[in-house]
Specification:
Structural class: mainly beta
Radius of gyration: 26 Å
Helix content: under 10%
Number of helices: 3
Strand content: 35-45%
Largest sheet: 26 strands, parallel
Distance between the termini: 83 Å
């Protein structure tokens, strides 16, 4: 072939290849994809790793390989490894690198033993990690007791105790899984599915003892963005069907150094995008189970938060410095208050947030109620709390406020809308504030309460609005109403199917005074808690049920 023709053809080939890859479709020939097997018992690092019979043996061998798009790393079911899994390389769009198991249903176990993190990725993308059990426990820091004993004590010494003292553990900060990004731009497609992450005895320090809040950033799973040179963010993150339990301090968090902004101006604020946290179970986290920071439109749905914040102050879950966060179809229950706690509720729309939606959740038996917070006078604008079932929340008195509460709106929170929720307060919940507004440098302004049912069996219930301004209450029903602070309260028999017995009991019987007695609200979300379609031009019911009555 003439040299000139060869270079022309080579140039065309190179252009087409580059264009195909940059368009998002990975080109990985079928005969180039590789599968590596790891067997802790019968494997050998001198093997090729290409079949179960030729499996590698150690994490060190896996960590020495630079993996390519579409590679698979499979660990033998039911076996255990000690140390850190820190593989190299990145996948591509359409060809992620996958870590999984083979040879049985039991999850392979990787025990970190007290290191920085048991599984670690740094500036890597297009990875999927599935079906592993991950621990990171150091018994030396717990007076020599083993992992099983430590996890049992989380229940007996903390959850089962009434207002136990806060734990103070200056252990080495550690994580089960650490996903890190530094000055690299977008880090895409990290999927964590069907994992069990537990037994991480990290640092847990009481509020105020850690000025920078760094102790919050260790525990189960961390997505951590650092650096100051190149704006960096995560994109297309999925955490699904995982169990994260018995970890100190935090179950799962995202954080970023690209976080500076005000209500009206972004400085270096660079949010992560397309974060989905779905169908996970969080149990017995030392403090917060889930913290979502610096993100645009994160979706948190169908998760169970059970017995969280057992050792220190923390709501089960909160978003901070986010736009358009959506919390839906979650169940939060038995969040624990410790002696002197500030936070022990289910879900918190925290400060430096805009347009948070908390909808279709079942919140029950949490020691504190729900928070909408503009901490220290900072902004929290446009939070919407709608179509939730709230049952027996606010059981313990807040340390500094000396109040039990269902809804607490504080500080610089503005334009908060709380509508079409159904709340049950049982007779044992005495001196409960249905609504409590608090000054935190400033008072909240423009808080709207529409179409809520308060099934109140506390004859000492109260409302405290302080000096907050612009509060509007319309079309709410409060059983046992003696609250002079509120106006435009609907009266009549509410007729729930059955109180104090879970969400299905808060549908309404025919003849209820709440049927078609609500205020029409634009952009109301399309459906009620139970999936009934909301008719555009029809008066809604009061409460979380919009059916025609049973």
């Amino acid at each position: 072939m003439p040299k000139k023709l060869f270079f022309i053809l080579f140039g065309v080939w190179a252009f087409v290849t580059h264009s195909s890859c940059s368009s998002g479709a990975a080109i990985v020939p079928a005969n180039k994809t590789r599968t590596f097997y790891v067997d802790a018992v019968k494997g050998s690092d001198n093997n090729e790793g290409s079949s179960p019979e030729k499996a590698f043996q150690t994490l060190a061998k896996i960590n020495s390989i630079s993996f390519l798009p579409a590679d698979k790393i499979l660990f033998k079911s039911g076996q255990q490894w000690q140390g850190q899994l820190h593989p190299n390389g990145s996948g591509m769009d359409g060809a992620p690198i996958v870590i999984d198991k083979y040879g049985g249903e039991q999850k392979p176990i990787i025990n970190g033993g007290g290191i920085h993190s048991t599984v670690r990725l740094q500036n890597q993308q297009y990875w999927e990690i599935n079906n592993l059990e991950i621990t990171n426990y150091n018994p030396v820091e717990e007076n020599g007791i083993n992992l099983k004993e430590w996890e049992i004590k989380n229940t007996t010494d903390y959850f089962n105790a009434v207002l136990p003292p806060k734990a103070e553990k200056n252990n080495t900060p550690k994580l089960g899984i650490s996903i890190e990004a530094n000055d690299i731009g977008a880090v895409k497609h990290i999927y964590l599915k069907n994992l069990l992450v537990h037994g991480v005895n990290g640092t847990i320090i009481p509020d105020g003892a850690d000025e920078n809040g760094d102790s919050k950033n260790n525990g189960g799973i961390g997505f951590d963005i650092t650096g100051t040179n190149a704006p960096t963010w995560f994109e297309n993150i999925l955490v699904e069907n995982c169990v994260i339990r018995d970890v100190d301090r935090t179950g799962l968090f995202t954080k970023s150094s690209w976080n500076k902004r005000t209500l009206h101006k972004n400085e270096n604020w660079t949010p992560s995008k397309n974060i989905v946290i779905r169908k996970n179970t969080f149990e017995r986290s030392g403090a917060n189970a889930l913290i979502v920071r610096v993100a645009d439109a994160p979706l948190i749905e169908y998760n169970l938060f059970h017995q969280c914040a057992i050792k220190g102050s923390g709501n089960a879950a909160f978003n901070f410095n986010t736009d358009n966060a959506v919390w839906q179809y979650n169940e939060c229950r038995f969040t624990k208050a410790n002696e002197g706690d500030n936070d022990a509720g289910g879900i918190d729309s925290d400060y430096r947030t805009k347009n948070t939606f908390i909808q279709y959740n079942w919140l029950h038996d949490n020691d504190f109620g729900m928070l909408v917070t503009g901490g220290g006078g900072q902004f929290n604008d446009g939070t919407v709390v709608r179509y939730n079932i709230i049952e027996r929340d606010g059981k313990q008195e807040h340390r500094s406020d000396k109040k039990r509460f269902i809804f607490k709106v504080s500080g610089g929170a503005t334009n908060t809308q709380i509508y079409n929720n159904t709340i049950y307060i049982d007779p044992t919940q005495q001196n409960t504030f249905l609504v409590f507004h608090k000054k935190w440098s400033v008072w909240p302004t423009n808080t709207f309460y529409y179409n809520n049912i308060f099934l109140n069996e506390d004859d000492s219930a109260a409302v405290s609005l302080g000096e907050s301004k612009g509060n509007i209450f319309e079309n709410n029903i409060i059983r046992e109403h003696r609250l002079a602070e509120l106006n435009n309260i609907k009266t009549g028999e509410i007729k729930p199917v059955a109180v104090n017995n879970g969400p299905q009991g808060y549908k309404l019987k025919k003849g209820s005074a709440a049927l078609r007695a609500g205020k029409i609200i634009e952009h109301k979300g399309g459906k009620d808690y139970y999936g009934n379609v909301l008719q555009k031009d029809r008066l809604p019911n009061i409460g979380a049920y919009d059916g025609d009555g049973l």
